[in-house]
Amino acid sequence: METLLLERDDHGVVTVTFNRPEKKNAISTTMWRELVAVLDELEESSTDRVLVLTGAGDAFTSGADLTPDELGAVATGESGGLGRSIRSMRMVGRVALRLHELHLPTIAAVNGVAVGAGCNLALGCDLIVAADTARFSEIFARRGLSLDAGGSWLLPRLVGLHKAKELAFLADIISAADAAALGLVNRVVPAAELTAVVTDLARRIAAQAPIQIQIMKRQLNQSLSVSMAEAVEFEDVAQAANFGGRDTAEALTAFLERRAPHFTGE
């Protein structure tokens, strides 16, 4: 791939790194396409257990690449620009949806600036660990743009409607500490410890029963769009299915034998 680095370890952790450090990992059309391809690949994987997203150099990602060379007719309003713009934005939307719907648990390791679409890709992950030097912004208003990459859906659910409007309307750049206080990130750690902390978290999750982690991700993601009765029905059916699986049997046996379970995803 031209714009992404992909690494797998022996624990089932896949790390995808935005790799345009000379441009603060600005997301080009090529990167959007490569993100779709990687997420499609991970959706089909039976061995990968956790996805970590991070950035090369000193940035997570500065959002979509808005340079003239990248935007071309879209930025100038030339003939054909609208059609191209819609096609480009549908690619952005596909990435946001694939990331949200991915069966694997996801962690954003935010090592630096995460603004615009980059901010929303981080927010679209299941967990966010930020370096104390990281910064976040829904910077769209400063660029004459509106929210994208899932931001209009994610923000109100994370911080509430009025705070989401404040973040969007003012387009302020906020520190990692302020992001944590708002509930946007799970943890803030010293920059030098970010990789170690995220690796530990990812491996701890990867060591759990993978199918059950995936079920819980789906349960929690849909929790705000279903009734209590629908949620409980899904819980009942999923839990009944668990008892027929080998991993649940292994977990119960390990509990009785006072040892750590070994999960295989069956």
- Under the CATH scheme, the architecture of the largest domain is Alpha-Beta Complex
Content-based structural category: alpha/beta
CATH topology of the largest domain: 2-enoyl-CoA Hydratase, Chain A, domain 1
What is the rounded Rg?
20 Å
Number of beta-strand segments: 10
**End-to-end Cα distance:** 32 Å
- The succession of helices and strands, N to C, reads EEHEEHHHEEHEEHHEHEHHHH
Strand order of the largest sheet: 1-2-3-5-7-10
Unreliable residue runs? 73-77
Percent of residues in beta strands? 15-25%
**Helicity range of the residues?**
40-55%
The main β sheet shows up as: 6 strands, mixed
Number of helices in the DSSP assignment: 12
Provide key terms for this protein.
single chain, 266 residues, alpha/beta, 2-enoyl-CoA Hydratase, Chain A, domain 1, Lyase 2-enoyl-coa Hydratase, Chain  A, domain 2, six-stranded mixed sheet, four-stranded mixed sheet, 12 helices, 49% helix, globular
Structure write-up:
With 266 residues, the chain is α/β, with parallel strands linked by helices. It folds into two domains: 4-206, 2-enoyl-CoA Hydratase, Chain A, domain 1 (Alpha-Beta Complex); 210-257, Lyase 2-enoyl-coa Hydratase, Chain  A, domain 2 (Orthogonal Bundle). It contains twelve helices and ten strands. It has helices at residues 29-44, 68-71, 73-76, 81-101, 117-123, 151-159, 161-170, 176-182, 194-206, 210-221, 228-242, 246-257; strands spanning 4-8, 13-18, 50-55, 59-61, 106-110, 113-115, 127-131, 135-137, 174-175, 187-189. The strands form two sheets. Strands 1-2-3-5-7-10 form a six-stranded mixed sheet, with helices on both faces. A four-stranded mixed sheet has the order 4-6-8-9. A hairpin with a 4-residue loop joins strand 1 (4-8) and strand 2. Helix 1 runs parallel beside helix 4 (81-101) and helix 6 packs across helix 7 (161-170). The radius of gyration is 20 Å and the shape is globular. Residues 73-77 have low confidence and may be disordered.
